[in-house]
Amino acid sequence: MVSRELRGQKRVLDVGNGGFFNYDTSLAEHVTAVDLFLKDGPGPGRNTTFRQGSILDLPFPECSFDCIVLQNVLHHVTGKTVTDNFQHLARSMEELHRCTSAGGKVV
Fold it and tell me: What is the pTM of this model?
């Protein structure tokens, strides 16, 4: 399913990637993976880049990506209390919206 969404996209962000692409990155022009535990640098493919960062404060300018992919991520966005959990989820959605270009999508 992810492959279908990536086909023809120019700028893709893979949030919570963990350093592993489970899809064909060549379907998009460029894929940037961001995760708390990645180091900034080139990815394993010619069109991939790794960035260290959090979904709560994505290290990218507004409208940077045509497509943002999240796989098995949101259950990690927790806090110490239920209120924290809701605040982190709301902040995550704000960051995804901020980094998605007009007409872009979050998958």
Answer: 0.94
